[in-house]
């Protein structure tokens, strides 16, 4: 295999992109990270620390570049690890650099674009790549960076993409990558896991107790599974790593931005949309999608009401509990 | 091969036709294309030399043995290699699968003797013997698929019989006009639209895979004529073996380049042979025709999903060409819709669709198409109507679902030029085989086709009027469910309401190009004239009037057929008002 075929290219030097790059570099995998923010590139070059993942040393073997064409030349396998609101612009840029031979997987746990699309749909429309996949699951950037155990799921219609992802990213025992063909299911599960992490942040913040917390988790899986199935995904996917596994790891993690947002909401802080996390955006997008598909999602609707300031945390919690009890 | 003029000796008559030329090759000059007039005149000019893409079918016989031998070699080699995995892949399993299926199909009769004998000795055969049996079976079924293609008859069929078929498609009066008059009549009945100049260009650069919607057994004949009229090369295609039973039709089928697909043969080996045959044909540059919907669409809805079997041979063939060092031998997918004012087999098809069990018969043998008299009647009554069939070609795609430009180059979904070879490149930089990858590409291609079909569909008065009537009846009865509606007695709609709703529907379609487009005649006619046209068409052809005017109301005589015809537009959601009052 050529060096290019063995190299992982990463778009975005955020927490996840950097964490993944560090985990890969530590086990000897060639990694090139593209960031269009010179200050980030300079900071990593100077301090070997990423501003978004400050406690982790970035090995010198991680190459940081500022030219997307250079990334396309260096790696055939590319991971898109940017915030969802930046995805359309970064993909348009990437599309001009790559060709039909590239494999593009994204690690975005949200829906994106003005129409709340799954990110793989945007990848297909904006770039020449057709061999596309989605990476999701309970792999926290901090754990990746620190060499702790982490797991991910890769979903693609192409077995080749699953195979390549496992060949390049599976680093047992620390990082394990599982395969799936349910792209739609994994993308929705990954997005909604962020939303429910916010919801659990609220629940923990107002100290609902272990019983209601368990009810919230199981009902979240149930309503999200309904949506996934209606949208063409598999009903089981939400119960897997990308969905439930993700929520269980992230809800409770003090570093998780979605969980932190939930705690802040529980303190009745007013959160401006500019401060919304991926999970918050996913909640709003999920509610719009559910309305279009005619799927009832009481938990998600309650969260969206809190986020948009239409309901207080306690009202929303009571309402969601009532709705859940009535329905199930 | 020497180019031959578009029509023999009758050129002068075209120029003197008087009124603006109707339909014909390329259809009416579409008003939205600035170069339409120029393009139309170039097309119609008397000295227009038809750039004829090389018609490889003419020399098929010299190639026949090579094609069959290639199929045999590849299928046997692949199965022998897979047999190393044992179990379901062993040669014994493959051969037994053939025997079991054939014995089930043929019962205890004389015809089954061969399979009884093979099944009986299978366990005792050595691997070499099994391999020999496999080779002979592949040859046997390969020969059956190819059939007897006689290039002399083929030439006769395309040169003489195609105009002969034109005769069938024309009212008797036109015959007096001689060959020129006949062709003119024919052209006005079969209207061909789309980017024909682009298609003619790429036909010289690669192999075309024409992929039309499928509603009638007339389709292959009609598309054959359309290609001929448009100056596009003829295509080979797989036709159901049941169609070869009628000697007249069989003659046409074979000699217009059809090979036989026997849908009764359900074992895997047969499918392998069929796909390999199609792959080798495409690799060798034989332009082909697939109906991606599989069988005729029972409901008359525009195909929303496609079968991937034969369509998948397009990417396989291109992949083989690339591996053979000939990436310039491109494969182009050409979507097309065939839009009939009336459908020959409408009654049988919709009845089958609505059959209570929902268990569709895969092969309908006893339908209108098997009766020659019915075809002649169809042609007389239906096709003897200007623009009664519109064949609309869409822009070409590559086997990966990418757009193809006028020069035959691929462009990604965002419009950037892309080398199609790169889609076959693996991590090692090689163009290796990967059937699962290719199947996934074909799924993406199928999804693109399903998007193209509605956009390129053309609505006749029959579709519009039945849609309006169906909406009105559904509103009156409070349900859109066809089974419930069939049980109600609601069958009448006031004429003014139909006319008004027709106007609304026409405006909605004009505003939504992704839904389809109006037939040129509908565009030119008013709402009342459109209703009258549909009343004429639907009142006379089918066994009983589908709709008829009784005083101030339009009365539905056959709701199944109203449902059938309106299904062509069923992808256009009902208006909110209609939903509200119907729910």
The main sheet of chain A orders its strands as: 5-2-1-6-7-8-9-10
Tally of individual helices of chain A? 15
Beta-sheet strand percentage of chain A? 5-15%
Main β-sheet description of chain B: 7 strands, mixed
Mean pLDDT of chain B: 80
Tell me the distance between the termini of chain A: 53 Å
Quick overview of this protein structure:
Chain A is α/β, with parallel strands linked by helices. Chain A has 15 helices and ten strands. Chain A is 52% helix and 14% strand.
Question: How are the elements arranged and paired?
Answer:
The complex is a heterodimer of chains A (328) and B (583).
Chain A: H1 3-6, E1 8-11, H2 15-26, E2 31-34, H3 38-47, E3 49-50, E4 53-57, E5 62-65, H4 68-74, E6 77-80, H5 87-95, E7 103-106, H6 119-126, E8 131-136, H7 141-146, E9 150-155, H8 159-169, E10 175-180, H9 183-205, H10 210-230, H11 241-250, H12 257-266, H13 278-293, H14 298-307, H15 313-327
Parallel strand pairs in A: 1-2, 1-6, 2-5, 6-7, 7-8, 9-10
Antiparallel strand pairs in A: 3-4, 8-9
Helix pairs in contact in A: 5-6, 9-10, 9-11, 9-12, 9-13, 13-14, 14-15
Chain B: H1 11-15, H2 36-44, H3 60-83, H4 91-106, H5 113-121, H6 127-146, H7 151-168, H8 172-175, H9 178-189, E1 190-193, H10 196-203, E2 206-212, H11 219-229, E3 236-240, H12 247-255, E4 258-261, H13 268-283, E5 288-289, H14 312-323, E6 330-340, H15 346-354, H16 372-383, E7 389-393, E8 403-404, E9 410-411, H17 435-455, E10 458-459, H18 461-477, H19 482-487, E11 492-494, H20 495-511, E12 517-518, H21 520-524, H22 527-540, E13 547-550, E14 553-556, H23 559-566, H24 576-582
Parallel strand pairs in B: 1-7, 2-5, 2-6, 3-4, 3-5, 10-12
Antiparallel strand pairs in B: 6-7, 8-9, 11-14, 13-14
Helix pairs in contact in B: 3-6, 3-13, 4-5, 4-6, 6-13, 13-14, 14-17, 15-23, 18-20, 18-22, 18-23, 18-24, 20-22
């Amino acid at each position: 295999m050529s060096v290019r075929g063995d190299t992982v290219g990463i778009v975005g030097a955020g927490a996840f992109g950097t964490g993944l790059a560090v985990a890969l570099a530590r086990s000897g995998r060639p990694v090139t990270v593209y960031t269009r923010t010179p200050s980030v590139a300079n900071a990593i070059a100077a301090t070997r620390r990423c501003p978004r993942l400050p406690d982790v040393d970035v090995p010198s073997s991680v190459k940081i570049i500022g030219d997307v064409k250079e990334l396309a030349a260096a790696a055939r396998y590319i991971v898109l690890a940017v915030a969802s609101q930046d995805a359309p612009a970064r993909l348009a840029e990437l599309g001009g650099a790559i060709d039909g031979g590239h494999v593009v997987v994204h690690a975005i746990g949200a829906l994106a674009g003005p129409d709340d699309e799954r990110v793989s749909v945007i990848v297909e429309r904006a770039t020449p790549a057709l061999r596309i996949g989605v990476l999701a699951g309970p792999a926290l950037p901090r754990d990746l960076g620190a060499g702790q155990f982490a797991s991910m799921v890769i979903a693609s219609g192409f077995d080749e993409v699953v195979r390549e992802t496992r060949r390049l990213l599976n680093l047992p025992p620390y990082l394990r990558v599982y395969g799936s063909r349910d792209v739609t299911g994994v993308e929705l599960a990954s997005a909604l896991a962020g939303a429910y992490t916010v919801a659990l942040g609220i629940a923990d913040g107002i100290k609902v107790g272990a019983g209601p917390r368990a009810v919230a988790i199981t009902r979240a899986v149930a309503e999200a599974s309904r949506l996934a199935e209606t949208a063409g995904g598999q009903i089981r996917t939400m119960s897997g790593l990308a969905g439930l596994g993700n929520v269980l790891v992230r809800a409770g993690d003090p570093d998780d931005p979605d969980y932190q947002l939930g705690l802040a909401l529980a303190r009745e802080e007013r959160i401006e949309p500019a401060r919304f996390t991926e999970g918050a955006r996913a909640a709003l997008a999920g509610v719009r999608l559910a309305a279009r598909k005619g799927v009832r999602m009481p938990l998600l609707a309650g969260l969206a009401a809190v986020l948009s300031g239409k309901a207080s945390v306690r009202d929303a919690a009571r309402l969601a509990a009532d709705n859940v009890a009535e329905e199930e | 091969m020497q180019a031959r003029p578009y029509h023999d000796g009758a050129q002068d008559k075209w120029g003197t036709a008087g009124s603006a030329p109707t339909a014909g090759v390329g259809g009416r000059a579409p008003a939205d294309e600035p170069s339409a007039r120029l393009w139309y005149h170039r097309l119609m000019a008397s000295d227009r030399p038809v750039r004829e893409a090389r018609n490889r079918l003419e020399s098929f016989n010299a190639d026949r043995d090579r094609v069959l031998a290639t199929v045999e070699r590849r299928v046997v080699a692949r199965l022998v290699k897979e047999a190393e995995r044992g179990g379901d892949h062993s040669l014994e399993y493959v051969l037994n699968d053939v025997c079991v299926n054939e014995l089930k199909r043929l019962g205890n009769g004389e015809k089954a003797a061969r399979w009884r004998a093979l099944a009986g000795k299978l366990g005792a055969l050595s691997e070499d013997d099994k391999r020999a049996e496999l080779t002979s079976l592949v040859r046997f079924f390969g020969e059956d698929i190819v059939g007897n293609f006689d290039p002399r008859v083929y030439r006769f069929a395309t040169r003489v019989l195609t105009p002969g078929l034109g005769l069938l498609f024309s009212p008797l009066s036109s015959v007096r006009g001689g060959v020129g008059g006949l062709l003119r009549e024919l052209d006005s009945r079969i209207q061909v639209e789309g980017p024909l100049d682009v298609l003619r260009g790429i036909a010289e650069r690669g192999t075309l895979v024409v992929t039309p919607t499928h509603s009638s057994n007339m389709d292959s004949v009609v598309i054959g004529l359309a290609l001929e009229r448009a100056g596009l090369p003829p295509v080979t295609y797989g036709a159901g073996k049941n169609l070869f039973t009628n000697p007249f039709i069989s003659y046409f089928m074979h000699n217009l380049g059809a090979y036989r697909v026997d849908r009764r043969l359900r074992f895997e080996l047969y499918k392998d042979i069929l796909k390999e045959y199609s792959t080798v044909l495409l690799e060798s540059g034989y332009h082909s025709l697939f109906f991606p919907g599989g069988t005729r669409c029972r409901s008359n809805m525009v195909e929303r999903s496609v079968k991937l079997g034969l369509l998948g041979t397009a990417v396989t063939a291109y992949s083989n060409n690339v591996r053979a060092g000939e990436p310039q031998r491109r494969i182009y997918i050409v979507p097309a819709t065939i839009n009939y004012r009336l459908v020959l087999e409408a009654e049988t098809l919709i009845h089958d669709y609505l059959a209570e069990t929902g268990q569709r018969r895969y092969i309908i043998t006893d339908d209108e198409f098997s009766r020659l008299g019915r075809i002649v009647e169809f042609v007389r009554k239906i096709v003897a109507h200007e623009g009664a069939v519109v064949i609309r070609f869409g822009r070409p795609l590559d086997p990966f679902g990418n757009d193809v430009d006028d020069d035959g180059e691929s462009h990604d979904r965002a419009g950037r030029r892309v080398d199609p070879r790169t889609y076959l490149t693996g991590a090692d930089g090689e163009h290796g085989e990967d059937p699962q990858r290719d199947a996934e590409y074909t799924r993406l291609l199928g999804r693109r086709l399903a998007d193209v079909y509605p956009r390129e569909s053309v609505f006749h008065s029959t579709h519009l009027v039945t849609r309006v009537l169906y909406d009105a009846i559904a509103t009156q009865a409070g349900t859109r469910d066809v089974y419930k509606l069939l049980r109600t007695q609601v069958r009448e709609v006031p004429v003014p309401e139909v006319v008004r709703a027709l106007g609304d529907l026409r405006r909605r379609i004009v505003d939504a190009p992704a839904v389809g487009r109006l037939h040129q005649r509908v565009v030119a006619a008013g709402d009342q004239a459109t209703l009258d046209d549909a009343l004429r068409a639907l009142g006379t052809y089918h066994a009983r009037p589908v709709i008829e005017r009784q005083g101030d109301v339009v009365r539905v005589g056959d709701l199944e057929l109203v449902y059938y015809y309106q299904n062509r537009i069923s992808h256009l959601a009902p208006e909110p008002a209609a939903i509200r009052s119907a729910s």
